[in-house]
Design a protein that fits this description.
By secondary structure, the chain is of the alpha+beta class. It contains 4 helices and 12 strands. The N and C termini lie far apart (about 100 Å).
């Protein structure tokens, strides 16, 4: 006769000196069979899973050339999402109107498509450069722009006007070079004059 039971299923558990009885084995098998049967009943059948998966709305149900075309097709809305080609956004029915949910897909940044006018002042922060430059020491202005970079070879100091670098002084191995930078009104560099 077992002197102990297991914690979860209360199966018979024998100590080294306990006599073993066939009825205890049968009791254990009955408990295990019952628990497995309960789990099988809870298991979803294939038809149920297929039905649930078919109901999942994973993307736009259709595409319309314009928002007006979508509004015309479904003036009182529905539960689906739709893509509007004119603006590249996906739309959902908010209960009262077709509402833009955001850009559906977008392309990456084209090569050479960013100029200095496209970059916000302080967007390129030195604390991010530290991770790349390693042995360089970088000091910052109070607005987060780089004031100077010191390397084992020398120091480069930056002066800003209206958020743009207008003067760079490089002292490398004791030789100083001054570069004055001017800009066009669109933010692109007009000239860089070294002296």
């Amino acid at each position: 006769m077992s002197s102990d039971k297991t914690t979860n299923l209360a199966l018979h558990k024998w100590a080294g000196t306990d006599p073993v009885e066939r009825t205890e084995f049968n009791d254990n098998f009955d408990i295990i069979d019952s628990k497995i049967g309960e789990q099988i009943v809870k298991k979803a059948d294939k038809a149920y899973v297929d039905t649930q998966l078919a109901a999942v709305n994973g993307g736009p149900k259709g595409t319309y050339a314009t928002l007006v075309a979508l509004q015309t097709a479904f003036p009182t809305g529905n539960a689906n999402n739709y893509l509007v080609a004119a603006d590249g956004k996906w739309y959902y029915w908010s209960g009262t109107a077709w509402t833009a949910g955001g850009q559906y897909q977008s392309s990456g940044i084209a090569a050479d498509s960013i100029n200095t006018a496209s970059i916000a002042t302080g967007a390129v922060r030195g604390d991010k450069l530290d991770q790349v430059l390693g042995t360089h020491t970088i000091t910052y202005n109070t607005n987060g722009t780089v004031a100077s970079v010191t390397t084992p070879e020398g120091t480069t100091t930056f002066t800003y006007t209206n958020g743009r670098i207008t003067n760079v002084v490089e002292t490398i191995y004791g030789v100083t070079v001054n570069t004055v930078i001017t800009y066009y009104s669109d933010g692109t560099v007009a000239s860089a004059t070294r002296s």
